[in-house]
């Protein structure tokens, strides 16, 4: 079983307002991200916020530590509930390719350009706990390197939405 996890905390400082609640074609970005993962995974959770269109998990060990703390919460849930791995994306992953799991399997692996989109085995939880308690860089890429994740290139990259301009460009395209 695969658990989908939307990493949905953060400050959205480049966006200027909570980008999870920004709308694309009448749907919030977080709802689109949950739907995208639900098409690929048995169950979906949202980390790093209390209100969401799917069950939520608080970041581990605490909020304010970045997306890895959301991944840690999801890996703990996966381990406790018997999921073998977690598929992650950010709130700005409105369009995930249908073959994403095939491209990322076997875990661990992540997208080369966007390591927030990754496939992580539940057994990676202890290494992530160690990293989050260390002075090392708390970045998805550093964790990916630590666990030997393959960095995968895909033909059609998932668009990043960091600014209102990024969102407007997507609205124009769809
Ligand atoms: N669970 C969780 N997710 C996070 C956290 N920080 C960022 N994220 C998510 O990780 C993804 C990538 O983060 P960024 O795009 O850099 O998000 P951000 O930090 O809100 O944006 P900036 O402030 O503009 O850098 C987004 O989907 C964020 O929602 C966090 O502390 N906890």
UniProtKB/TrEMBL annotation:
Residues 4-141 form the MobA-like NTP transferase domain. It holds the Pfam family NTP_transf_3. One of its GO terms (molecular function) is nucleotidyltransferase activity. Keywords: Cytoplasm, GTP-binding, Magnesium, Metal-binding, Molybdenum cofactor biosynthesis, Nucleotide-binding, Nucleotidyltransferase, Transferase. Signal peptide: none annotated. Coiled coil: none annotated. This is Molybdenum cofactor guanylyltransferase. InterPro entries: MobA-like_NTP_Trfase, Molybde_CF_guanTrfase, Nucleotide-diphossugar_trans. It comes from Novosphingobium beihaiensis. The lineage of its organism: Bacteria, Pseudomonadati, Pseudomonadota, Alphaproteobacteria, Sphingomonadales.
